[in-house]
Amino acid sequence: MTARIEDKGDRIVVWNGNAHKRGALSPELYACIGQAMELAKEPRIRAVILTSEGDFFCAGGDLNILIARREMDKDQRRGKIEELHNLIRAIRSSAVPVIAAVEGGAAGAGLSFAMACDLIVAATGAKFTAAYVKAGLVPDGGLTASLARALPRQLAMEMCLLAAPVTVDRMAEFGVVNVITDKGKAFDEAMNLADRLAEGPRDAQAAIRGLVAQAYDVTEAAQLDAEGDAMAHATGADEAAEGIAAFLDKRKPNYGG
I want to staple 194 with a disulfide (CB 3.0 to 4.6 A). Which of 47, 53, 151, 226 is the partner? Predict the structure, then answer.
């Protein structure tokens, strides 16, 4: 089994089990991520975690599969790439926060998946590599957009043009990695983050995700309007009533998670 889903009631865990190929992409992984994004729409779900059963998060595309695509025409190849891109879009527009728990490292499209997530937990020694150029390929999965938003231009170029691996410590310095853990503990820390999210206001979290996601692509004036609409809605919602009351009563809020 190259991938599986674990439903933990208030969160969904996607396990990349293709360990003998360092977590290379597989049709099963695509299917599991797609299923997880659908399940995330259910009100009971508060987070999705992407992780691996082996010692490497995801090495990206299986080169043997990519070789076979040479026999396809361009439209067919583009269709296969759109399967990946649709998953990236689904993660970006997820109803709940998505957490990447990275052991070993993430390369190629594996890095694209990690960078599409809202939070990244990574173990000591993990490395992040845009490895495409080594195989005469170019980044996909929205990676150039993610890197450009998160890193200085020169470092993004270094990663993409030279396939230079970047350490977890350096990624953390730029705020790309939220938490560095001991080896073998990335999933545990991701679960801790999911616990914290589960205690929070689900609708407000969803609104915040949407606001932050669009902020990179719109003007400040448009973002002010979007924040105004979102805040006007939030102020009249039950979550705000509970949150404000709890703050004034000096107690922990109960959002029903």
Answer: 47
